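Morning. Coffee machine broken again, so started the prediction first thing and wrote up yesterday's gels while waiting. Chain of 234 residues, entered below exactly as on the submission form.
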Amino acid sequence: MLQVCPNGSRTEGVPVSPEEIAAAVRSAADVGAQDAHLHPKDDAGADTLDASRVAAAVSAVRASTPSIGVGVTTGAWTAPDPVERAALIRSWTVVPDHASVNFHEPGAELVAEALFERGVAVEAGVFSSTDAAERFLRWPHAHHVLRILAEVTDTDPETATGSAKALLRDLGTRHGRPVLLHGEDGGTWPVLRLAVRLNLDVRIGLEDTLTLPDGAPAADNAALIQTARALLNP
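Came back before lunch.
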């Protein structure tokens, strides 16, 4: 599975408005993206879980690309108090297909359970160099998540692959869930190549990197997806 992450927490050089996000996802889907992970934005370009903003972004993507699965972030930076984040999720008027929950963040379990209540599948975000793998694996509902989003925070292209392998060892296999492995910035392409070799799900987009494998600036999300697709199908 190839997922596009078109914007992330970046505020410049990425799609921000619902219309921009929808156009980016459509272009990415046209060249091979099968799923999308969005960061709905407020007027200042900051990530938000506000019901109207989530509804606008998710609805715009579904209207432009009805065939694609749509997910959103629930990162703690959107609302530091997990009780508030859970309340915001319960206020959503349009629900995404899935949402990511970062298991190193306080209250991750509470946020995930609020998503389950709304019928939203959970991507369990497990960051390297944190206690997220341990926390996730001891959570009683670990086997109910849609997939594990294994996030390698090591941005050094020389060491990111090793960090990814260590994260996968920490996760093991007893969880029984699909794993989407990805890196960020300088570690993006080395980690993606490892994920391809291991036949894991992958993602790419301007959230993770602004450059192509040769270091040249990526024109847009579609260019990143097209490059990743070529690696998946050499």
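The CA atoms of residues 76 and 105 lie 7 Å apart. Going to sketch it on the whiteboard this afternoon.
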